[in-house]
Amino acid sequence: MLNKKKLGIISGMGTHAGILFLNKLLGNLDAQRDQDFPEFIFHNNSQVPDRTRAIIYNEVSPLNELKRSLEILTGCNVDYIVSTCVTSYYFLNQLDKPASGKLIDPIELIVKKLMNEYPHVQKIGLLATTGTLKSELFHKAFSNLPFELIALTPEIQEQKFMKAVYGDGGFKSFPVAPAAYKLFLEAVNYLIDQDVELILGGCTEVQIGLKAVKPSVECLDVIDVLVEEVVRIMNLKNKKTEL
Q: What does DSSP assign to residue 157?
């Protein structure tokens, strides 16, 4: 039976993370023929200005480019839209419903998953861009939840995590340099030293680091949660394997 739902994907923030989302989605399917795969429109909008710099330094807003992506996707009559950049949701959530009504919100999905599947967890280590932290996307969503969010210190945030993502050879680059993984591991180890029980990947580049670094505590990555939701709402056949 042909899939009746159509997915729109806003990528390019960064491109590497967007491709990994797509690979995870396809890799999680039990598809035996062309018609078993979902229909999707993938817009790799690498022209979107940097979200963190817009939030922190009041530089060029990404809103116009994000609107352009939404217009392209809605013009293709998609049923659902995901952005493969968590920080972009700070801006996407400012749009009116006709423009953003089909958006799948990863923050809402993370909250639901934690409440349903991780009630035993208390301390959660958050890995997210400085823009996401400044916008308080996660902290506002967690304000009435029984979890304690532990972030990196400002110095470790900038010198370890953000350099791992944004630096030369960082996770937004291709290929990724070994030094980026080393910096990422140091950021992860700081959270582990704070006795966190779970590390939350609140930036879509975190999945790149987690592929190479295997923390000693459980991890929950926003891309994996987005993939699970897309498979569910589009009624796709799930391979039922780990993402």
A: I
